[in-house]
Amino acid sequence: MECAGRGRGSRCIGSATRRCSRCGAVAYCSVSHQVSHWSDHKEECGRFELQMNRVDALNDFPFTFTPEATVGIVKKQESRCSFLSMRGLHRVGIWTCECTCGDSLDSFDYSRLSYCWNLSSSLCPCRGPVSRMSKCLTSWKDYYQWRCIPLHSPVALLLHWYFKPLMVYHATQLAATGNLIAEITNKLCIHYLGPKKELLQLAVFGELHALFPSVQVHIELVGPAIPESRDGESIDLCSYARCIETDCMCKSSNGNMCWDVCSERTSAVTLKLHKGLYHERYRDIVKDSIPHIVIAPNAGIAAYSSWLPTIELIKELNVPAVFSDYCEEASHLASCCISAITGRPMTIPIQLNPFRQPMAVEDSALFLPCYANCFLFGI
User: Fold this and answer.
1) How far apart are CA 261 and CA 298, in angstroms?
2) CB < 8 Å & 24+ apart, contacts of 185-188
């Protein structure tokens, strides 16, 4: 945590240990920096205070590992590395980028991609569900019960992620509830903006088979993090990500995970990768793929000016768009930016995402509680 008043005249004299007594969300190295920063902080202080008061709700998960993954991470009693190491998942397969010491996307050898959960069949959704979904899923507990997964399984760390299956499902439900999208019958086309770590975890999208049964789901993934070598790549997900057991039926001919690049096979879940910004690539993409919904995970809209032309494009398209961000403040700033561009309020107001990642973000810039895909909002 760095001093919130850094760069205000005098140099910082030490660690930022003096927290704002009202909101507790920011810290300073000295009284003088706190005083000089007040003119900027006073407008946000009350908002931060309200957000800090909701920390218990943000930390509320049904998992047995919740204390170590939330408060333990924030208090530095645990780390992502230690959490994954205790479960034999540190820097393993699709879990590689779930901690900061993993390979960067720029240096990753995509030929080493894994399609395996690296978990036993009892701990992961490597096969189809035992029964069809009887109601809309509204929580992690609902999902785990439906998929017969015990609450000590860590698969939620990936299933939430970057609007992966549960986030695609929930965003679509939000849009449908607000009558922003027509009822999904046999095909759903999603334009998914800004993929990063997902590029190493694409097999997890196979869970969309269970979440959207009998629906052809096609996802166009668009973003600057996609390597040049993968631009235009098409992927056909024929089934679910595998478990680690060699004799599980997910390895059989009926349950085998197929990962076909540029395949001619028709599948319930298909992906296509596009390098670049959405407003730059849209004209090419839309020739074959008109979106039902646009989804942008952990978007950081207020932090990147490149979002301006993309938001303007989404406004012209007149299709629902659902965004997420790490904390309530980032979502507030993003909503203000979007409303300023579109000239209208958010159609989907800021709300806590029930399928946020159940592990706190390490070393966030503020003391505000942060989780990947923590809050949702949309137009």
Assistant:
1) 27
2) 185/215, 186/214, 186/215, 186/216, 187/215, 187/216, 187/217, 187/218, 188/212, 188/215, 188/216, 188/217, 188/218, 188/292, 188/293
- pTM of this structure: 0.89
User: Residue 272 and residue 266: Cα distance in Å, rounded?
Assistant: 14
- State the angle between helix axes of 328-342 and 31-52 in degrees (0 to 180), rounded to the nearest 10: 80
SS3 assignment, position 363: coil
At residue 366, the 3 state secondary structure works out as: coil
Neighbours of 219 (CB within 10 A): 27
Give the number of other Cβ atoms within 10 Å of residue 14's Cβ: 9
* Pair 223, 193: CB distance under 8 Å: yes
Residue with tokens 């900061």: 100
303-334 pLDDT tens trace: 999 999 999 999 999 899 999 999 999 999 99
Buried-exposed string 81-97: b where 16+ CB fall within 10 A, e elsewhere: bebbeebebbebbbbbb
Evaluate whether 183 touches 215 at the Cβ level (below 8 Å): no
For 23, residues 6+ apart whose C-beta sits below 8 A from its C-beta are 45, 46, 48, 49, 52
